[in-house]
Specification:
14 helices; Metallo-beta-lactamase, Chain A; 2 domains; six-stranded mixed beta sheet; Serine Threonine Protein Phosphatase 5, Tetratricopeptide repeat; elongated; alpha/beta; single chain; seven-stranded mixed beta sheet; about 45% helix
Length: about 425
C-alpha cells in the first residue's frame, strides 16, 4: 500500500504531492505509523516522523510539531511499546522538535542528538518570539498562533559528522546547510535509508522565504549531491512521501540540485556583471525542462525569492538603486506621488485599471501607495483589499498567498 501510494505521488497522480503546503503524505495522516520494513516506520504529518524499533528500543528521527505531539505519541505507541531511548533532530524548526513531551512524561528521558547550531536557533527564537509569531500567522494564515518560548534542547551535539549506534542500527549523521544552518542528514546503512530532513520536501527548495532568516542555496546544492552519492534505496523526507528505489532517489536529488544550481549560477553571473537586484529578479528563470517534475513545483517557495536570498547572502541589502540607499519614508513618497497623480483616489483608480489589465504587480504598487497616502480612507482600503485579494487568489506559492491575503485582510478591516 505505501509503495503504491509513493509511486502515485512520484508520477504526479496524487494530489498530495501538490497539496496546499506541498507536503505530500498528509492524506495518510489519520492512519498512524506505516511500516516500511521490519522495525522501520513512517508517520506522516505536517512534519513527518521516522520510527525505528531495534532490540527493545524505540528511536525517532524528527519528533513532529507541538500541535500533533499527543497524536504522535498515541500512534507510535500502537506501533511499538519499546521505551524511547533516542531521538534525532534534522534541524530546529518547531515542526520537527516538539513531540517528545508525551513520551518523556510517561517514560524515561531520551537522548537527543542534533547539530550544534540547533541550540543557537532556539535562543534566537526566544529573542525574536513576537516577530516569529507574527510572520508565521501571516505565512500560514493562522490567527492566534503563538510562538513557543521553551524548547527541548539536544543532549548531544556535533559539528561535522557523528555516528550513533542503537540496538542493531547505525545512524550516520552529516551536517549540511540549506533551508537552515543546523541541518542533519541521516543515513542508516542497514536499511540503505536516507533521511534528508527538509533538504528534500517534494516542492522546490525552501531557500528564499521572504520573511525568514538567511537560507543557503549553493550549500544546499552541495548537500543534494552528497546525499545522492550515498546510493540510498529508500528516502524518507521529513515532509512529503517516501521515495523507493535507488534510481528514483538519485533522480529526485540530482534534478533538485540541477534546478537550484541553475538559479545560483544565473544570479551570480548577473551579480558579478554589476546588475541591479531588480534586473536579476526579473531575468533569472529555473530550467524549463524540469517544470513537470512533481517534486519541483513552486507551491511553497518561489524562484524569485531564492534569487533575493542569494543577493542578500552575497550582495548585502543594498539593491543597486541609489534612491533606496537612504530612502524617504514610504508614506512620504506615497503622499508625494498621490499629489502628482491628483490624490490617493486617483492612485486607487489606477490600481484597479492595472488589475483589470492583468498587471497585478503594478496594481499592487499603486494600491499600496494609495493606502499609505490616505491611511484612513475606507474607499482606498476597499481597492487595496480587492487588489491584494486578487493577487492572493492568483498565486501558487503559499508564501506569496500568505502575504497578499494578510494585506487584503488588513484593508478589509479598515474599509467599513
Amino acid at each position: 500500500m505505501i509503495v503504491e501510494y509513493a509511486d502515485r505521488v512520484w508520477r504526479g497522480e496524487s494530489e498530495d504531492s501538490i497539496a496546499d503546503l506541498g507536503l505530500a503524505g498528509q492524506g495518510l495522516a489519520d492512519e498512524g505509523v506505516r511500516t516500511i520494513e521490519d522495525g522501520l516506520g513512517w508517520w506522516p504529518g505536517f512534519g513527518n516522523v521516522i520510527t525505528f524499533a531495534t532490540e527493545g528500543e524505540l528511536v525517532l528521527f524528527d519528533t513532529g510539531s507541538p500541535f500533533s505531539a499527543a497524536r504522535l505519541h498515541e500512534d507510535v505507541r500502537r506501533w511499538s511499546r519499546a521505551p524511547l531511548t533516542t531521538a534525532f533532530y534534522s534541524h530546529g524548526h518547531i515542526d520537527h522538535v516538539f513531540g517528545l513531551g508525551p513520551f518523556e512524561e510517561s517514560g524515561p528521558r531520551a537522548t537527543v542528538y542534533a547539530h550544534e547550531a540547533v541550540g543557537d536557533r532556539f535562543r534566537r527564537y526566544v529573542l525574536t518570539n513576537g516577530y516569529n509569531a507574527v510572520i508565521n500567522q501571516r505565512q500560514f494564515q493562522a490567527d492566534g498562533l503563538r510562538w513557543p518560548t521553551e524548547y527541548r534542547h539536544p543532549d548531544v551535539t556535533y559539528r561535522d559528522a557523528l555516528t550513533v549506534r542503537r540496538g542493531g542500527l547505525t545512524f550516520d549523521l552529516l551536517h549540511a546547510k540549506g533551508e537552515t544552518d543546523d541541518a542533519t542528514i541521516g543515513y542508516v546503512p542497514e536499511y540503505k535509508l536516507l533521511l534528508p530532513g527538509d533538504l528534500f520536501i517534494w516542492v522546490t527548495p525552501n531557500c528564499g522565504n521572504p520573511q525568514k532568516v538567511q537560507r543557503y542555496p549553493r550549500e544546499w546544492v552541495h548537500a543534494l549531491h552528497r546525499m545522492a552519492a550515498l546510493d540510498a534505496e529508500i528516502m524518507l523526507p521529513s515532509h512529503g512521501a517516501p521515495v523507493f528505489g535507488r534510481d528514483r532517489v538519485r533522480q529526485a536529488l540530482l534534478e533538485t540540485a540541477e534546478w537550484l544550481e541553475s538559479l545560483v549560477t544565473q544570479t551570480l553571473d548577473l551579480l558579478n556583471a554589476g546588475a541591479r537586484l531588480d534586473e536579476i529578479v526579473h531575468t533569472v528563470r529555473p530550467p524549463a525542462h524540469l517544470a513537470d517534475r512533481p517534486y519541483l513545483r513552486a507551491r511553497y517557495d518561489e524562484p524569485e525569492f531564492v534569487v533575493r536570498n542569494l543577493w542578500r547572502l552575497y550582495g548585502g541589502w543594498y539593491d543597486g538603486n541609489p534612491a533606496t540607499l537612504k530612502p524617504a519614508p514610504d508614506a512620504v513618497l506615497a503622499t508625494a506621488v498621490a499629489g502628482l497623480a491628483g490624490g490617493a483616489g486617483a492612485l486607487a483608480d489606477a490600481a484597479l485599471k492595472a488589475l483589470s489589465g492583468g498587471d497585478e504587480r503594478l496594481a499592487g504598487h499603486l494600491a499600496e501607495m494609495a493606502a499609505l497616502a490616505a491611511p484612513d480612507d475606507p474607499g482606498v482600503h476597499r481597492v487595496r483589499a480587492e487588489v491584494f485579494g486578487a493577487r492572493a487568489a492568483s498565486e501558487r506559492s503559499l508564501m506569496a498567498k500568505g502575504v497578499f491575503a494578510w494585506a487584503a485582510a488588513e484593508s478589509r478591516k479598515r474599509s467599513s
